[in-house]
Amino acid sequence: MARSKRRVPPEAYDKSCLLSDSTEGFEEFQQGSLSFIKRLQLDMLELSPGVRLLEVGFGRGEFLRECAKRGADVVAIDYSPDALEIAQQTMAEFPDADLRVADCKALPFDSRSFDRVYSGDVIEHQHWEDGVQMLTEMHRVLRPGGFLFVHTSPNTVFTRAVLPLVKPLLRLIDPDTVRSLEEHMQVNAPNHVHEYNLLSLRKVARRAGLKGAEVWIGHDLLRSGRHRHTRGFSDNPLVRLTAALSRFAPVRFFVGNDLYLRYRK
Q: How confident is the prediction for the chain on average, in pLDDT?
């Protein structure tokens, strides 16, 4: 099947999109904090004072703000002018932060400029070839000794093969959460041009020249019951058993939804 080469225009990421439940962590953003999954990614970046970080796709800016609070020298780009306006307000306590409207496929920075290059939930908004170019650019601006880090969700093995089979059972457990998940997927479908699984994420990394990149699926299937799409299932014995079994890689391959890519230069 031919891959889509559709590109999502920047106006798709306007304030009505960014300031809504359709984007990860909006509930926590309103409270001045980070979602559980974003907090986990923040820890994985291994930041310390003076580390020079580039975030590719800053959205509302709350992740970048937490990076700055850890002492990182932060720089960030986003495709959306509305995102820049929101993020400038979010980053008000860090007026020296370098925020720009730019394209992830042509980063406006010199090669070997950053110790960390991070992108959370952006690559699925690019078609395949643009995803390759995005990773190539992230690699180009990365300094030797540093690493680039990518998160994407969902896992297409789960959404296309497993979810249709288990959805009737999940509806019995918590119909409201299933309804919310279905609405979320429907709203995001036009902007998720190319979603991934473990195998396809490895493939795009190889295509971008990231030899030896680590690619994995997160162990915490239920996101510790602290996410709106897992909270309603976290007390069910069958779901908890499946979550416990997710420590085994074959189980995660089918039911995990947090995909990670890390490449050390």
A: 96
> What is the number of domains present in the chain?
1
Let me know if residue 34 belongs to a domain. Answer: yes
Query: 38: domain range?
Result: 10-156+187-264
Report pLDDT digits (tens) over 119-154: 999 999 999 999 999 999 999 999 999 999 999 999
User: What residues contact residue 160 under an 8 Å CB cut-off, 6+ apart?
Assistant: none
Of the candidates 44, 20, 14, 4, which has an alpha carbon nearest to the alpha carbon of residue 187?
20
Count Cβ atoms below 10 Å from residue 85 Cβ, excluding itself. Answer: 14
CB 65 within 8 A of CB 34: no
Token representation of residue 218: 């997160």
For residue 118, give the CATH number of its domain: 3.40.50.150
Give the tens place of pLDDT for each residue, 216-263.
999 999 999 888 889 999 999 999 999 999 999 999 999 999 999 999
pTM given for the model = 0.96
- Strands of 259-264's sheet in order across: 98-101, 73-78, 52-56, 114-120, 142-152, 259-264, 214-217
28, part of any domain: yes
